[in-house]
Design goal:
Layout lengths: L1 H30 L15 H13 L6 H27 L19 H27 L3 H25 L3 H19 L10 H11 L1 H8 L2 H11 L9
Helix pairs in contact: 1-2, 1-4, 1-5, 2-3, 3-4, 6-7, 7-8
Length: about 240
Amino acid sequence: MEKYISALLISFYVYGFAGWVWESFICPVITGGKIKNSGFLNGPIVPIYGVGALSVSLLFSVHETYLSIFIGGAFVACVIEYFTSWAMEKLYHRRWWDYSDKAFNVNGRVCLEGFLVFGLFSVVAVKFIQPALMERILNHGMLMLVVVATSLTTLLVLDMIVTIIALAHLEERLDGFIKDVEMYAEKAFDGFESGRKNFYDVLETLKMNDKPAYKNFIKGKNLMYHRIIKAFPDLTNKKK
């Protein structure tokens, strides 16, 4: 049992890392955006992908039809994403992502596009990836799997603690950070009007035009908010 649970935990981290690679590198390349550390945590993992993939893999069997896995997996993943969005907004009083501009969205938290992508990924995970991944992981000895799973879990917990502490009182601190950046931009650029530009674009423009001074300005705790805003630009919008 310990070996199987450890294998499941390791597969969770594999999916979480794959999700981080997808959002940080593949999506920006496809959409023409900039490569970034896309995620709530500092480390290279997006836990919601691990939770979603593991949930779908446990709830659906490889013997089920493609259609049932597609619809069921997409529904489960959307429920997880919706609840995560709601919980994070309640906790931090900010909307972390917003699909209001997407077709067939539900309160801006989930949308049809995501449903279709989640459905496709669910089929691939249940039918192909998870069986092969578990078989490969379980080929290793129990001691090794327990050590790896425990080590990765310890790192994840530490990362979560550091991130949560750093983001304490996020709403007030983020407002202060945005105000400081806009004041800095007003000094750096003639005719700059706060609120008239996308905040992420302001950060990037400042960085490109005066890197040494900007690095000095952004150092310390501001570095965390800079990274979070790059990963979740919708945070700069007030909750409606």
